Amino acid sequence: MSEGAFRRKHLLGLEDLSREEIEHILDTASSFKEVIGRQVKKVPSLRGVTICNTFFEPSTRTRLSFELAEKRLSGDVINFSASGSSVSKGETLKDTVRNIEAMAVDMVVLRHGASGAPNYLARNVDACVINAGDGFHEHPTQGLLDLYTMRAHKGKLDGLRVAIVGDIAHSRVARSNIWGLKKFGANVTLVGPQTLMPRDIERLGVRVTHRIDEALEACDVVIVLRLQLERMESGFLPSIREYALKFGLGQHHVRNTPNLLVMHPGPINRGVEMDSEVADGPESVILEQVANGVAVRMAVCFLVWQASGAANVPEPVAL
Ligand code: CP
């Protein structure tokens, strides 16, 4: 395990994390990945710890991945989704979570449509809080699993040339990746329509272009973002067809960029942001990202609980 310590009771974003903290999470995830490869894929690290996965927005990957990670750590897991709950009766986020907490819940994993909701919660509850995606703000565990996957394939993050393509303005995945990658001195280029590019984003130390060919020149990794089809109604784009023609990742892009790693956080709109041949092709590591997500989330749950000092946390068997 790396030397850097992780002393945070909450994981709210990658913006505040140091390079050493991120490396520590990734190294811990490597140990847990070894656990997942065993015949018995379970360690007692969170035995007796109760975790509530609290999802106010839809999710497939993040929700299942957290649940699996928590179970592999022997945590007691409960799941909450806003639909069908008392949220529809007007209950506030704080009241909902304080009621969950009253049932002796130790850790809350939160996905919420409002940017900053996990930060708010962390100030108002005793439990550890992990951000599972908040509004347009951050999706830190997605950023971490992306960094983990890039490092596994390219051997390093320092100086890596990464293009992020798509709806940057509404993407929490893009923000977490930018914060994480910049800690390692990676060269990040953002590509997308002007209407979906935040003003002044260059101040984060990234390059902006509106031509995908230009961004892919001498590029090591391309992260293609989901086009949030619901944005179409808001007049951000003239048509999906035009977007696909200008910004969709096709086989010719991959052929013209040697050793390109193709990533996507999911869910994919096939034929819109990426052709099926690319999504399923040899350069794609999309399903590997999903697999790595479990090990990364095991590491995050373990480390925040350890940092909370709430209990004697046994060392995971693999560490
Ligand atoms: N990548 C991601 O956040 O996917 P879900 O919305 O399915 O969790």
TrEMBL record:
One biological process term in Gene Ontology: 'de novo' UMP biosynthetic process
Domain Aspartate/ornithine carbamoyltransferase carbamoyl-P binding: 9-151
Protease keyword on record: no
InterPro entries reported for this sequence: Asp/Orn_carbamoyltranf_P-bd (IPR006132), Asp/Orn_carbamoylTrfase (IPR006130), Asp/Orn_carbamoylTrfase_sf (IPR036901), Asp_carbamoyltransf (IPR002082), Asp_carbamoyltransf_Asp/Orn-bd (IPR006131)
Entry GO MF terms: amino acid binding; aspartate carbamoyltransferase activity
Keyword terms: Pyrimidine biosynthesis, Transferase
Pfam families in UniProt: OTCace, OTCace_N
Known pathway: Pyrimidine metabolism; UMP biosynthesis via de novo pathway; (S)-dihydroorotate from bicarbonate: step 2/3
Keyword Transferase: yes
Residues at which L-aspartate binds: K89, R172, R226
Family according to the record: Belongs to the aspartate/ornithine carbamoyltransferase superfamily. ATCase family.
HAMAP family documented for this protein: Asp_carb_tr
NCBIfam families cross-referenced by the UniProt entry: asp_carb_tr, PRK00856.1
Subunit structure of this chain's protein: Heterododecamer (2C3:3R2) of six catalytic PyrB chains organized as two trimers (C3), and six regulatory PyrI chains organized as three dimers (R2).
Protein name: Aspartate carbamoyltransferase
Origin species: Eiseniibacteriota bacterium
Gene: pyrB
